[in-house]
Amino acid sequence: MIYITLHFSVIISGTSGDIVMTQTPLSLPVTPGEPASISCRSSQSLFDSDYANTYLDWYLQKPGQSPQLLIYEVSNRASGVPDRFSGSGSGTDFTLKISRVEAEDVGVYYCMQSIEYPPTVV
């Protein structure tokens, strides 16, 4: 069994108040080949009606490495990200799914809002 460690809560400071991002579960034991799902909730909507986009991104920080972008704007895979990763959701509720977990997927997963700048992690 391998472990995917998930970051639990991130506060992103923005000009119109703090957006609180909460992830569950705190950690998730998974067996290679099985699916995994991570939930993320925002304290306010991440939908920008001016641009008709929702600004929710997912990052993975592997041990000893810098965070890498997995998913941007809810469901778009970044370049080079395997198709076993997918993102979904809208408004304030989002999900990252891994269809078949591999050993290389171990790390810390972050959801981050990018609707307000600067997107500073406190």
Automatic annotation (TrEMBL):
Keywords: Adaptive immunity, Immunity, Immunoglobulin, Immunoglobulin domain
GO biological process: adaptive immune response
Gene3D superfamilies, sorted: Immunoglobulins
Protein name: Ig-like domain-containing protein
This protein's record includes keyword Flavoprotein: no
Pfam family, one: V-set
The organism's place on the tree of life at top rank: Eukaryota
Span of domain Ig-like: 19-111
GO annotation, cellular component aspect: extracellular region; immunoglobulin complex; plasma membrane
Coiled-coil residues: none
